[in-house]
Give the backbone structure.
Amino acid sequence: MLGNEDEAEKCLQALRSENKSTTAVALLSALSLKKHYKLKEALDELDAAVLQNPDAADLWLELGKLHWEEEQYTLSLAALLKVPG
């Protein structure tokens, strides 16, 4: 399934339709948006997710990486410093 983008997208849509707001759903959604060059939407997804899950290290890490890729270094550092652990 991981290699099949269509199948992964179907699973993600099914989870969204069930109103599953988990860290994994938010992360997968952001990664899918990033893959489709929808970087603003991916950032918005991660920003919302870290507000709901402030202890989710994987969300903070991905948020920091995405800000870095967007050359938003101050925001990147701020997100990376919030990674628990």
Q: What stands out?
A: The two ends are 30 Å apart (CA to CA). DSSP finds five helices and no strands in the chain. The chain has one domain: 5-81. Residues 51 and 59 are 10 Å apart (CA to CA).
